[in-house]
């Protein structure tokens, strides 16, 4: 795991993910950003960072983010606002659903059954915000754009 400020480089978040993961073997990246860098935080999460934390929050927030990442989750500081599906452009081709992480699969199965983010969060022992982040990332991977598409996808795949 690496905690970095992606604004201190000219590389894009995607390039940072590639360099840290592919070249340096770092599995998870945490973006540590100023409070006014919400756009950068969202770009980092969408590029594959596991967390985005504001430097302006108490250190406990960074500790919470790292704990969430270690547990297999994704964390986005509340100061950066929620991630929404509209921020996530669907990929042109649907990916193989087995490329989802186990947590993404669990979240999508719960949502497809009609559970709210709060209900899924309670079931999985994670925050509703983390559920929303997993859902957005997984739906982007699958090229899905809404709940009805998710329900149809889950029906076809026997979830």
TrEMBL record:
Residue ranges occupied by any HTH luxR-type domain in the UniProt entry: 93-158
Taxonomy of the source species: Bacteria, Pseudomonadati, Pseudomonadota, Alphaproteobacteria, Rhodobacterales
Protein name: Response regulator
Claim: DNA-binding is one of the keywords in the record: yes
GO molecular-function term, one example from the UniProt record: DNA binding
InterPro entries from the UniProt entry: Sig_transdc_resp-reg_C-effctor, Tscrpt_reg_LuxR_C
Entry keywords, A to Z: DNA-binding, Transcription, Transcription regulation
Top-rank taxon, per record: Bacteria
Alphabetical list of SMART domains matching this protein: HTH_LUXR
Any one of the GO BP annotations: regulation of DNA-templated transcription
Transmembrane helix found in the keyword field: no
């Amino acid at each position: 795991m690496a905690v970095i400020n992606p604004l201190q480089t000219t590389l894009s978040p995607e390039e940072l993910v590639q360099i840290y993961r592919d070249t340096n073997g770092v599995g998870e990246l945490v973006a540590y950003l100023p409070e006014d860098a919400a756009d950068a935080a969202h770009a980092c999460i969408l590029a594959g960072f596991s967390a985005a934390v504001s430097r302006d929050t108490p250190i406990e927030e960074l500790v919470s983010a790292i704990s969430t990442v270690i547990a297999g989750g994704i964390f986005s500081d509340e100061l950066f606002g929620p991630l929404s599906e509209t921020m996530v452009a669907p990929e042109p081709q649907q990916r193989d659903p087995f490329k989802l992480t186990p947590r993404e699969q669990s979240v999508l199965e719960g949502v497809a059954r009609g559970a709210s983010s709060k209900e899924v969060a309670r079931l999985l022992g994670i925050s509703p915000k983390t559920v929303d982040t997993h859902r957005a990332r997984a739906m982007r991977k699958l090229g899905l754009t809404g709940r009805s598409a998710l329900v149809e996808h889950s029906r076809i795949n026997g979830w």
